[in-house]
Amino acid sequence: MGFPLSLNDTENSEGQNTASGKNNSSNILLIFIVVLLVAIILLLIMYYKTSRKLSKIVNGQVPAVEEKEKDVEFSAEKKIAIGEGTMMTVEDRKELVFFNDKLKFQMGELLRASAEALGHGIMGNSYKAMLNDGSTIVVKRLRDLKPLTKEEFERIVQVIANLKHPNLLPLLAYYHSRDEKLMLYRYADNGNLFSRLHDGRDGNRVPFSWNSRLSVARGVARALEYLHLNNKFHNIVPHGNLRSSNVLFDANDTVLVSDFSLASLIAQPIAAQHMVVYKSPEYGLARKVTVQSDVWSYGSLLIELLTGKVSMCSAPPGTNGVDLCNWVHRAVREEWTAEIFDKEISCQKSALQGMLRLLQIAMRCIERLPEKRPAMREVVREVEKIHTPVINDDEDDASGDRSFTVTDDSFSTSASGIIGDER
Question: Which domains does the chain have, with CATH numbers?
Answer without folding.
Answer: 75-186 (3.30.200.20), 193-414 (1.10.510.10)
